Amino acid sequence: MKKIELYDTTLRDGSQTEGISYSVADKIKIARKLDELGVAYIEGGFPGSNPKDRMFFEEFKKHPLKNAALTAFGATRKAGVAAKDDPVFAAILHSGVRVATIFGKSWDLHVRDVLRVSLEENLEIIRDSVKYLVAEGLELIYDAEHFFDAYKHNRDYAMATLLAAQDCGARLLCLCDTNGGTLTSQLVAVIADVQKNVKLPLGIHVHNDLGLAVANSIAAVEAGCVQVQGTINGYGERCGNADLIPIVGILKLKMGLDCVTDEQLKELTEVSHFVSEISNMKQADNQPFVGKSAFAHKAGVHINAVYKNPKSYEHIEPERVGNVRRILVSELAGKTPILTKAEELKLQLKKDSPDTKRVVKLLQDLEHEGYQFEAADASFEILVKRALKQYKKFFELEGFRVIVEKRQKGTITSEATIKLKVGGVQEHTSSDGDGPVNALDNALRKALKGFYPVVSKMHLSDFKVRVLDAKDGTAAKVRVLIQSQDERDSWTTVGVSENIIEASWLALVDSIEYKLLKDGAVLPHE
Ligand SMILES: CC(=O)SCCNC(=O)CCNC(=O)[C@H](O)C(C)(C)COP(=O)(O)OP(=O)(O)OC[C@H]1O[C@@H](n2cnc3c(N)ncnc32)[C@H](O)[C@@H]1OP(=O)(O)O
Ligand SMILES: CC(=O)C(=O)O
């Protein structure tokens, strides 16, 4: 099986993303995770750039990675400075790595306008730089910056820069689409021409400015490149780098190429989510292979078919990349998920029965009002039970009041008072909280805990509000999603109203009733 080298640059090019700033500890955690995933190279940073990157490399002198080779990144030497005196090279050598990656100029525009040296001097800079680092005993990966633009404007000069790096001992030439503006067909044609002119193996490093980074990386592998550079989740300057996550999935599962083991592939979802968490970036739900929605089915026709045979609407089994199939319940879902949920709840429901039609109608009416059940699993279960009259009321509300108070100098305070009845016994309590919903939640659970002690073992873990008709301003409806948790499970409930407190109350009541239902609570004196 042909082997492809995965080269990860999340810690260097990925850190050039707007909004990302890794600490040394973050970088170390990510490097260790990537090592477990099985990438061949981890570009740890630019030690000539800043102390943080230099400190990062210190950690691996003491505790090396298990599998991957750590590489230190830098530019070719500065014009007019001998390689031995260039501080960037001194930092690379001090970092203790056995592999260095340096980027050099391929494009005559950059040589003239950015480096401001002659074309010949740039070739000399490349030769000197590669020769020096190789003579110091390092494996050298040469990143030909802007190679595809360079080729378009001056093919012969671009080719000469590669030959300069090759002749001086580089191990691999990586062709970079630095500005990310190259079409796939153009990229493949350039690679074919380069292969006729150089002996060294080729790598590919592309940016995503056309949304083609993954496609271009894959086409480059098909054209013969043996190394793919990219970042986890496609982080990187401007529109990002090629996303290594789908690249790994495609190389392994669609092209049968050796890059990680089957076991390592199962870590793909975990690695992607871990890196987005540490990077403090929102995970894209629709990210191929690993997103929350990558194997989520919403349309009734799809759901019906997936129950019969998952291959009907899935390109691979989600478990192969550590993801899971999800069935979303909504007004578009038809009867199949309702029947399945009923089966899970051990409720008798037949496809064409009036009960099933009633549940579908109720679901569609509520979604029309603004409810959304695809994330609110617990509210959906309560809805089915209510519709089938398999539901008991654990308490009856007589009324609540919520006060939010702000004095001229003091902090803002919230207090809720609640009056309810449980099996004919009236309870009247009050509680304060961090905000009005928290106060209401505390008061409700305080009122119920004497009757149902299990409510003390749950808490509210997330609270989301979405305005539904923004054009109506403050009179718009809001949808509140509440996530609750006990020692074993977490569940989500939903409420909709024009009043945010009422919407929150509806979601809170579902949340508590769900807990009581799932724990088999009984009404006092029942
Ligand atoms: C395509 C890429 O993503 S390459 C990666 C780029 N990464 C970064 O820039 C992040 C880290 N960079 C840094 O910390 C700094 O920019 C440093 C340490 C590299 C340089 O800092 P400074 O010496 O202050 O220079 P400054 O950042 O202002 O300008 C960049 C210099 O690099 C030079 N340069 C750019 N590319 C190269 C190259 N391939 N080889 C040699 N020199 C280069 C430029 O000509 C410019 O020098 P000049 O102003 O003397 O002409
Ligand atoms: C080297 C690099 O990061 C680039 O050319 O995009």
Automatic annotation (TrEMBL):
<feature type="domain" description="Pyruvate carboxyltransferase">
    <location>
        <begin position="4"/>
        <end position="269"/>
    </location>
</feature>
<dbReference type="InterPro" id="IPR036230">
    <property type="entry name" value="LeuA_allosteric_dom_sf"/>
</dbReference>
<keyword id="KW-0100">Branched-chain amino acid biosynthesis</keyword>
<comment type="similarity">
    <text>Belongs to the alpha-IPM synthase/homocitrate synthase family.</text>
</comment>
<keyword id="KW-0028">Amino-acid biosynthesis</keyword>
<dbReference type="GO" id="GO:0003852">
    <property type="term" value="F:2-isopropylmalate synthase activity"/>
</dbReference>
<dbReference type="Pfam" id="PF22617">
    <property type="entry name" value="HCS_D2"/>
</dbReference>
<dbReference type="InterPro" id="IPR000891">
    <property type="entry name" value="PYR_CT"/>
</dbReference>
<dbReference type="Pfam" id="PF00682">
    <property type="entry name" value="HMGL-like"/>
</dbReference>
<dbReference type="InterPro" id="IPR054691">
    <property type="entry name" value="LeuA/HCS_post-cat"/>
</dbReference>
<dbReference type="InterPro" id="IPR005675">
    <property type="entry name" value="Citramal_synthase"/>
</dbReference>
<keyword id="KW-0412">Isoleucine biosynthesis</keyword>
<dbReference type="GO" id="GO:0043714">
    <property type="term" value="F:(R)-citramalate synthase activity"/>
</dbReference>
<dbReference type="InterPro" id="IPR002034">
    <property type="entry name" value="AIPM/Hcit_synth_CS"/>
</dbReference>
<comment type="pathway">
    <text>Amino-acid biosynthesis; L-isoleucine biosynthesis; 2-oxobutanoate from pyruvate: step 1/3.</text>
</comment>
<dbReference type="InterPro" id="IPR013709">
    <property type="entry name" value="2-isopropylmalate_synth_dimer"/>
</dbReference>
<dbReference type="GO" id="GO:0009098">
    <property type="term" value="P:L-leucine biosynthetic process"/>
</dbReference>
<dbReference type="GO" id="GO:0009097">
    <property type="term" value="P:isoleucine biosynthetic process"/>
</dbReference>
<protein>
    <recommendedName>
        <fullName>Citramalate synthase</fullName>
        <ecNumber>2.3.3.21</ecNumber>
    </recommendedName>
</protein>
<dbReference type="InterPro" id="IPR013785">
    <property type="entry name" value="Aldolase_TIM"/>
</dbReference>
<dbReference type="Pfam" id="PF08502">
    <property type="entry name" value="LeuA_dimer"/>
</dbReference>
<keyword id="KW-0808">Transferase</keyword>
